[in-house]
Amino acid sequence: MSATAAIATVAVQVVTDKKKRNFVLKIVLIIIMIVLLLIFLIVIIVAALFETFFPKDNNLLENKYYQAKEAIKQEYDIPNDLDISYLQYIDLASTDSLSEDVEAIKKKIASYYLKTEVIKTEVDGEPIEEKITFFKSLTDITTMVSKPPFSLSESDASFLLTIPTLSDDVPLLGNYPMPVKGNITSPYGYRVDPVFGLTSEFHRGIDIGAKWHDKVISIADGEVYKVNYNKSSWGNYVIIKHDTRDGMFYSLSAHLSSIIVQPGEVIKKGQVIGFEGGDQRYDPNPGNTTGHHLHFEIWKNSNSNSTMNPLKIISK
Predict the structure, then answer these.
(1) Cα–Cα distance, 70 to 81 (Å, whole number)
(2) Which of 125, 216, 227, 297 could pair covalently with 252 via S-S, beta carbons 3.0-4.6 A apart?
(3) Global pTM exceeds 0.85
(4) Tell me, what DSSP letter sits at residue 277?
């Protein structure tokens, strides 16, 4: 009898014999349970390793990497952020230790984690060029650390892309409401441009996925600074100047389907200024979008290059 015939005979016996069928099912269930248990143990081990290497510091202000990063951010007036989890992992992977020297960490960040770009913009209608320093994107950092002085292996460098960042768990604790009801679909900072596919595009605000044509409100008392249309990016947009007890700042709401305020109009917190839009098929002047949403920015002054992360001042 050939091997194939023997296997077929056994299979027929298993199918027709209730005891043998039950026995095989029990074996299969035991194997599945063992596999699930192994997966559970692996998850527990990985979680424990992350907790060891990247502990959730109850007092982040005491973290030397945080202190160094914030000092560099202030010194160079950097508009985006850099998660210290990346800095800590790279040091561990390349030197097997974490530094306690804030000045040494600052020097390393300034030498390897910054890049300067010339940004063309307009101020009061006049074109200007301005040099702005950014923290490098995660894509740039992943490429950089495979070279000296870090010289990480390809697998260690790629592991950067899987690290859960400290900012993942930061709640919105600002004093101002969301400008529209919805979820944040694209954060502030470097990202892959959804329209052009650029891998190092700096996103100067946040995108909020909202109900189509939902109400968009002013997040604080203020005066309408500008109402305009920009075909190449924002579509219909409103800029509001807010002079609050927390200081003066500007907010921009873009991709609006319609606008119901005028330049110079004094408005109140919570007042409707327009309606969400950005649908390329049905909305007028949508700007560059892949679908309807609200693009929202916070500026420190009237210069569009003075953006900051809106999540620092708004809350859900």
Answers:
(1) 9
(2) 297
(3) no
(4) B
